[in-house]
């Protein structure tokens, strides 16, 4: 809905700002409306005069003294343009538009940052303005551009997110039984509720994080929370999704993110220190590399996702086998044939191979080489800066792609800058992966005498130690003459370097 306008320098434009609350309770303040309007004036060569109405406590249709003063200035020829962020700042209803048109009609241009220009001297321009006002009414119903602008601005400032309350933050008491009591800004202008640490919840969150960093699974922590009757931020029982999302949220480490990217340190306190949080992410990722543990029988297979068929290379699955003696079931790992992709030619008794691999893991944990390597790793690892470097390069590439999309440079030029950046990004990602793996391994053995206490560790803990040390275990086919007895030479362990 842009129409051609005559641009002339030195003319005065009335910049109209209306401070109000939107439906989500967010204040659309001067600092968000003014800069883009001034930028528009500068582009057009207009001299800005600012008019500001505070509509905060206004009921609909209340008088706006500055708006009226601005109209008077249009009428007496002081202003030749009216500028605002969006036409919904200027006009609150179609009825107001008609009054506005009758005053401004052939005296001034209307230019908005977000909804284009209106030339009210022509029937077409007036029609567009009328449609625009109707659309603006509709837009109030949606989460619009203003929200995006506000979110960007808040992210850039490292300010807290709005929206539902994050577990671990907020004051105690009844008002926080439900999460939806918090919005970014309160009418009284005080900081949002969600930036204060909720002492009890923070402790729960730290305990969960500590257990997971030490090798427990999210599943076991989830069960524990629900068993203890601890409720989530929405006052409900925890689900796996809610718990994992919370643990992955940079917010609990006092880090601000925008669209999934960490932008900077937040202005609120961390429940979990940044280093601990990054280590936690590494733990969550290590588990991602393995086979997710499901409820039921599969959880009894310690080496699921680790064992490989020595004939075809497929991952072995866990399957109970009924033996001849009174239908007793024993656990086995098996190369599944058919549609699941394996050759179906390998089967091994679970207990025997698990015992062997665990013994090897314990021996490795005890070895001088491993202890020395761990000390070296602890000295070199700075996952934090590696993480930020990856983020920086990735967002730079995105920016470039966007510029190319806007045809700011040619394809050849784009290629020329993109390729070296991609190489760098790949290297940074590799570094980050290595550091995170190291961090998770040293987190594992931070607990003293892990090997000595192996037998007391929970299944989850043992599995996560195995997953972070062992890349794969190859099981060779059974030799013909063993008579069903397990032959340890069938097992080849591939360690993570
Ligand atoms: Zn196979």
Characterise this structure.
The protein has helices spanning 30-44, 65-75, 87-90, 94-104, 123-141, 145-156, 199-213, 218-227, 240-248, 274-289, 350-366, 368-380, 383-405, 411-446, 459-469; strands at 12-21, 27-28, 47-54, 81-84, 109-112, 116-118, 255-258, 261-265, 307-309, 317-322, 329-334, 347-349, 470-475, 491-495. By secondary structure, the protein is an alpha/beta fold. The chain folds into three domains: 12-151, Rossmann fold (3-Layer(aba) Sandwich), CATH 3.40.50.1390; 174-289, Putative Large Serine Recombinase, Chain B, Domain 2 (Hect, E3 ligase catalytic domain fold), CATH 3.90.1750; 291-381 and 440-497, no CATH class. Strands 1, 2, 3, 4, 5 and 6 form a six-stranded mixed beta sheet that branches. Helix 13 packs antiparallel against helix 14 (411-446). The two termini are 61 Å apart. Bound molecules: zinc ion (ZN). Zinc ion (ZN) is lined by residues 309, 311-312, 314, 335, 342-343, 345-346.
Task: Describe the structure in brief.
With 497 residues, this protein is an alpha/beta fold. The chain has helices at residues 30-44, 65-75, 87-90, 94-104, 123-141, 145-156, 199-213, 218-227, 240-248, 274-289, 350-366, 368-380, 383-405, 411-446, 459-469, and strands spanning 12-21, 27-28, 47-54, 81-84, 109-112, 116-118, 255-258, 261-265, 307-309, 317-322, 329-334, 347-349, 470-475, 491-495.
Helix and strand arrangement:
Elements (H helix, E strand, L loop, with lengths): L11 E10 L5 E2 L1 H15 L2 E8 L10 H11 L5 E4 L2 H4 L3 H11 L4 E4 L3 E3 L4 H19 L3 H12 L42 H15 L4 H10 L12 H9 L6 E4 L2 E5 L8 H16 L17 E3 L7 E6 L6 E6 L12 E3 H17 L1 H13 L2 H23 L5 H36 L12 H11 E6 L15 E5 L2
Bound molecules: zinc ion.
Zinc ion binds next to loops.
């Amino acid at each position: 809905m842009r129409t051609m306008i005559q641009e002339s320098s030195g003319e005065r434009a009335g910049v109209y700002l209306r401070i109000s609350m939107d439906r989500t309770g967010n204040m659309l303040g001067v600092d968000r409306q003014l800069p883009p309007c001034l930028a528009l004036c500068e582009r057009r060569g207009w001299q800005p005069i600012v008019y500001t109405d505070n509509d905060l406590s206004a009921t609909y249709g209340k008088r706006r003294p500055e708006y009226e003063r601005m109209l008077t200035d249009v009428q007496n020829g002081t202003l030749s343009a009216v500028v605002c962020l969006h036409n919904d700042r200027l006009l609150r209803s179609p009825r107001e538009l008609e009054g506005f048109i009758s005053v401004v009609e052939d005296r001034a241009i209307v230019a908005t940052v977000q909804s284009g220009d209106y030339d009210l001297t022509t029937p077409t321009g007036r029609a567009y303005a009328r449609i625009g006002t109707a659309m603006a009414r509709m837009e109030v119903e949606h989460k619009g551009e203003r929200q995006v602008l506000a979110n960007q601005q808040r992210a850039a400032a490292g300010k807290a997110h709005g929206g539902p309350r994050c577990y671990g933050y907020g004051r105690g008491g009844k008002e926080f039984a439900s999460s939806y009591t918090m919005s970014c800004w309160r009418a009284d202008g005080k900081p949002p509720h969600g930036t204060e640490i909720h002492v009890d919840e923070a402790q729960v969150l730290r305990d969960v994080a500590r257990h997971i960093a030490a090798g427990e699974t999210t599943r076991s922590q989830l069960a524990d929370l629900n068993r203890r009757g601890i409720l989530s931020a929405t006052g409900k029982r925890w689900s796996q999704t809610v718990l994992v999302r919370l643990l992955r949220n940079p917010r609990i480490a006092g880090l601000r993110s925008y669209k999934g990217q960490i932008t900077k340190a937040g202005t609120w306190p961390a429940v979990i220190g940044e280093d601990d949080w990054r280590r936690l992410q590494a733990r969550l990722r290590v588990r991602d590399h393995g086979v997710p543990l499901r409820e039921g029988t599969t959880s009894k297979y310690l080496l699921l996702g680790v064992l490989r068929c020595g004939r075809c290379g497929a991952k072995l699955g866990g399957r109970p086998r009924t033996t001849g003696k009174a239908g007793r079931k024993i656990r086995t790992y098996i190369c599944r044939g058919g549609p699941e992709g394996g050759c179906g030619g390998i089967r091994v008794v679970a207990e025997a191979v698990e015992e062997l691999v665990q013994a090897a893991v314990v021996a490795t944990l005890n070895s001088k080489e491993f202890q020395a390597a761990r000390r070296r790793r602890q000295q070199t690892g700075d996952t934090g800066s590696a993480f930020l470097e990856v983020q920086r390069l990735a967002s730079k590439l995105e920016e470039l792609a966007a510029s190319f999309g806007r045809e700011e440079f040619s394809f050849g030029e784009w290629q020329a800058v993109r390729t070296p950046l991609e190489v760098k990004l790949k290297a940074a990602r590799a570094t980050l992966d290595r550091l995170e793996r190291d961090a998770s391994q040293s987190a594992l053995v931070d607990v003293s005498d892990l090997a000595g206490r192996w037998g007391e560790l929970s299944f989850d803990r043992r599995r996560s130690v195995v997953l972070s040390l062992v890349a794969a275990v190859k099981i060779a086919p059974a030799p013909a003459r063993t008579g069903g007895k397990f032959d340890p030479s069938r097992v080849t362990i591939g360690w993570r370097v």
